[in-house]
Amino acid sequence: MKVSDILRVKGNTLYTITPEDSLADAARIMAEKDIGSLVVMSYDRVVGMLTFREVIQTLVRNGGSFGTTSVYRAMDPGPLTCTLATDMDEVRRMMLERHARYMPVIDNRMLHGVISFYDVAKAVVDAQNFENRMLKAYIRDWPEEEPAAKAEPGAA
Length: 156
Hints:
The chain is an alpha+beta fold and 156 residues long. The chain has one domain (3-140): CBS-domain (Roll). 44% of the residues lie in helices and 18% in strands. It contains six helices and five strands, in the order αβαββαααββα. It has helices at 3-10, 23-33, 52-61, 71-74, 88-98, 117-140; strands spanning 16-17, 37-42, 45-51, 102-107, 110-116. The chain has a three-stranded mixed sheet with strand order 1-2-3. Strands 4-5 form a two-stranded antiparallel sheet. The longest helix has 24 residues, at 117-140. It is elongated.
């Protein structure tokens, strides 16, 4: 399974913000849209990723206040990225190694979407459920064996 398969099912609704926007505005958007991340864009390029993790870390550093903090000051400037052709096993490995919950999908310098750890887990569970249904159908439709021929007495 490839990243493109997940985006095809998930859709490509995407929320972005600029580095100059305020962190308070970013948090407001995340809360209103019930999303855990925003891709940070500048001049049509991905320059970072802002997740609830960075928002909370900044709040803690600022004593519970956003103050005048910009997205630039809080964002992750080097987020993990993948392409539409990246295999799901590779995405899982990368996300687990970096403890990343969100990953922008970039192909030919163009942002195509964001996949989350939830999206990856859901795709794996859906694939396993499909495989289980196919195996159960195969077993249920298993052809019966022909009865063994009786051996004739005295035949060797």
